[in-house]
C-alpha cells in the first residue's frame, strides 16, 4: 500500500486564483494525501488472513487513487467549460427505429447479462435487497429477470448467463435468494462490488478504524465501480474464456431492461464498443444524466457535475432532449483493453451525506455511463420509453402491479385494452411511501385501465375491486381518514376530507 504514489498535481494555476493560493492548495492536498495513505495502511494491517488482506489492499488502493484524483481536481478547480457543451450530433445518437430487424440467434451465444443488484430500497422502507421485492403476480425483480433469460435460452437454444453485481449490503441476501433457481435453465454468477470507506468531511480521513468496522462506515461507490469490480473479481476473464464478447448491463429495478436482439445486432454490425440506451426526457426525468458532445467526443453529463447557475438549463428539454436509462451494452474485449492499457478514469461524483450520529461525510462515486468516452465507435441509441420502467417509489409499484401491465415470460406487456399508449400519472402521498404502509392501504390493487391521473394524500385506505377512471384526486386532511369501500367506482372525482364526492 505504501508503495502507491499520489498523482502529481498540475502546477498550472487556474486563471481566477493567485499563485500563492495554488501553492497553499497543493501543500494542503499533499498533507491530506499522506494522512489518508497512512490511515489506509493502518486499515489494511487490521486484516490478518493473507488472502483477505490482499483483496482488501487492492480495494483500498483503488479507493486511494480515486481520493487523490478528487483532491487534485479540487485543487485545480477543474470544471467542464459550459460554453463548449453541445447537444450530441446526429451520428452520435441512433434512433431505435433505424436498427436492423434480426432473428439470428447465434450472436446471443456471445452475450452475457449483468444486473446491478446493490440497492437496498431504503427509500421504500425496505431493509434487504431491493431486487427481492415482489412486484407483479407474486414475482420479484430477480424472479422476472430469471424468467426472461431462461425463456431466451430455451427458445433460441443458447446459453446467456446472468451476472449479479451485489454490494456488501445485498450480497448475503442475494446468495440466499438465488438458491431457489438451482434447477433453472440458467447459469448465475454473483460478485461483490467494492466497499470503500466513508470520508470525514472535516479531517478528510476514513471513518472506519478497522476493516471489520460497522457497515455504516462504508459505502458502495456507485455503479461506475462495475469495471473495476469485473476485473478484480475475475468475472471479466471468466466471461472472455467462455467466448462471451458482449455484456448487457442494467439496474435490477428497471423492468423495461430486457435483452433486445436489434440493439445487439447493431452493436456487432457497427463495431460499436459501447452503447448507451437513452430515451426522450419528460418532466419526471429532468435530473437524469444526459449525453453531450464535448469537444467532438460523446460523453455523459450528470446533474452533480453541473455548476449551480446552469442547473435550470440542464433540466430544460430544449438543449438536452434525452437522458441516460443506464441500460448499457459493452464489448468485453474492448473493456479488457481499456482497463489494462489506458485505465478507466470516470468523472467523480461527490455525494455528501450525514450519518445517523450527525457526522458530515463524503462519498466519492462514479457512474457506469461515464465510461462511454473511453470506447471506440461509442454511441447512444434513442429507445422507446417502454425500455425504461424503473420502480423507485410505491407510486411506480402501483402502476406495475395494476392491470395496465401483464406478464409474458417475465416481461411486462402493456394491456391491449388500454386506449392510450401512455401510462397514467400516479402520485401517492407520504402515507404510502413505505412498502408496509402501501400493502396495508390497498386491500387489492384497483383497476386502473381507464385512469389518466391519480393523486392521493393523507390517511386513505382502498377496499377490494375498486375501479378508478379519468382523473381521481383523494385528499384526507389532517386528522381525517378516508376509506374507499369495496367495489367502488370513481370516475373524474375529487374526494376531500369529509368524504364528499365532487364531479370533476
Question: What are the key terms here?
Answer:
alpha/beta, 504 residues, 8-stranded mixed β-sheet, 11 helices, 5-stranded mixed β-sheet, disordered N terminus
Describe the structure.
Strands 2-18-12-15-11-3-6-7 form an 8-stranded mixed beta sheet, with helices on both faces. A 5-stranded mixed beta sheet has the order 21-22-24-26-27, covered by helices on one side. A 3-stranded antiparallel beta sheet has the order 1-13-14, with no helix packed on it. Mean pLDDT is 89; it is low at 1-24. It contains 11 helices and 27 strands. The longest helix has 27 residues, at 50-76. Strand 19 (405-408) and strand 20 (411-414) form a beta hairpin. The chain is an alpha/beta fold and 504 residues long. 26% of the residues lie in helices and 26% in strands. Helix 1 (19-44) packs antiparallel against helix 2.
Low-confidence stretches: 1-24
Number of distinct beta strands: 27
How far apart are the first and last residues' alpha carbons, in Å? 68 Å
Count of runs of 4 or more consecutive helical residues? 11
The neighbouring-strand order within the major sheet is: 2-18-12-15-11-3-6-7
Q: Structural class of the helices, strands and pairings?
A: alpha/beta
Shape: globular
Report the average pLDDT across residues. 89
Whole-angstrom Rg = 25 Å
Largest sheet: 8 strands, mixed
What is the helix fraction of residues, given as a range?
A: 25-40%
- Measured by DSSP, the beta-strand proportion falls in 25-35%
Amino acid at each position: 500500500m505504501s508503495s502507491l504514489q499520489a498523482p502529481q498535481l498540475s502546477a498550472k494555476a487556474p486563471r481566477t486564483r493567485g499563485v500563492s493560493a495554488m501553492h497553499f492548495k497543493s501543500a494542503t492536498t499533499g498533507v491530506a494525501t499522506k494522512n489518508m495513505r497512512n490511515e489506509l495502511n493502518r486499515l489494511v494491517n487490521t486484516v490478518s488472513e493473507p488472502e483477505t488482506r490482499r483483496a482488501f489492499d487492492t480495494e483500498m488502493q483503488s479507493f486511494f487513487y480515486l481520493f487523490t484524483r478528487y483532491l487534485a481536481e479540487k485543487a485545480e478547480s477543474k470544471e467542464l467549460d459550459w460554453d463548449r457543451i453541445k447537444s450530441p450530433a446526429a451520428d452520435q445518437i441512433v434512433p431505435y427505429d433505424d436498427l436492423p430487424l434480426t432473428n439470428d440467434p447465434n450472436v446471443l451465444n456471445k452475450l452475457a447479462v449483468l444486473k446491478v443488484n446493490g440497492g437496498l430500497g431504503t427509500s421504500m422502507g425496505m431493509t434487504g435487497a431491493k431486487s427481492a421485492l415482489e412486484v407483479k403476480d407474486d414475482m420479484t425483480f430477480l424472479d422476472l429477470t430469471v424468467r426472461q433469460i431462461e425463456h431466451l435460452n430455451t427458445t433460441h437454444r443458447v446459453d446467456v448467463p446472468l451476472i449479479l453485481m451485489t454490494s456488501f449490503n445485498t450480497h448475503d441476501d442475494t446468495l440466499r435468494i438465488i438458491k431457489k433457481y438451482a434447477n433453472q435453465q440458467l447459469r448465475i454468477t454473483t460478485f461483490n462490488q467494492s466497499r470503500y470507506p466513508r470520508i470525514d468531511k472535516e479531517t478528510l480521513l476514513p471513518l472506519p478504524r478497522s476493516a471489520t468496522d460497522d457497515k455504516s462506515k462504508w459505502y458502495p461507490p456507485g455503479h461506475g465501480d462495475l469495471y473495476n469490480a469485473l476485473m478484480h473479481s475475475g468475472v471479466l476473464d471468466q466471461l472472455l474464456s467462455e467466448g462471451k464478447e458482449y455484456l448487457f448491463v442494467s439496474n435490477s429495478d428497471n423492468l423495461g431492461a430486457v435483452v433486445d436482439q436489434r440493439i445487439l445486432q447493431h452493436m456487432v454490425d457497427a463495431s460499436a464498443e459501447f452503447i448507451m440506451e437513452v430515451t426522450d426526457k419528460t418532466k419526471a426525468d429532468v435530473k437524469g444524466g444526459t449525453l453531450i458532445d464535448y469537444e467532438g467526443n460523446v460523453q455523459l453529463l450528470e446533474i452533480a457535475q453541473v455548476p449551480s447557475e446552469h442547473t435550470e438549463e440542464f433540466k430544460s428539454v430544449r438543449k438536452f432532449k434525452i437522458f441516460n436509462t443506464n441500460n448499457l451494452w459493452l464489448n468485453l474485449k474492448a473493456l479488457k483493453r481499456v482497463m489494462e492499457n489506458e485505465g478507466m478514469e470516470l468523472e467523480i461524483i461527490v455525494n455528501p451525506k450525514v450519518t445517523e450520529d450527525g457526522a458530515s461525510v463524503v462519498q466519492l462515486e462514479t457512474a457506469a455511463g461515464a465510461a462511454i468516452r473511453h470506447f471506440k465507435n461509442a454511441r447512444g441509441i434513442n429507445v422507446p420509453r417502454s425500455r425504461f420502467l424503473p420502480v423507485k417509489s410505491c407510486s411506480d409499484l402501483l402502476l406495475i402491479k395494476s392491470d395496465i401491465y401483464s406478464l409474458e415470460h417475465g416481461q411486462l406487456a402493456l394491456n391491449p385494452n388500454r386506449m392510450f399508449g401512455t401510462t397514467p400519472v400516479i402520485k401517492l402521498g407520504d402515507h404510502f411511501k413505505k412498502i408496509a404502509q402501501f400493502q396495508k392501504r390497498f386491500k387489492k390493487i384497483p383497476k386502473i385501465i381507464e385512469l389518466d391521473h391519480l393523486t392521493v394524500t393523507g390517511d386513505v385506505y382502498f377496499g377490494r375491486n375498486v375501479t378508478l377512471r379519468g382523473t381521481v384526486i383523494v385528499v384526507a386532511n389532517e386528522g381525517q381518514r378516508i376509506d374507499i369501500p369495496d367495489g367502488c367506482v370513481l370516475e373524474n372525482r375529487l374526494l376531500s376530507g369529509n368524504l364528499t364526492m365532487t364531479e370533476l
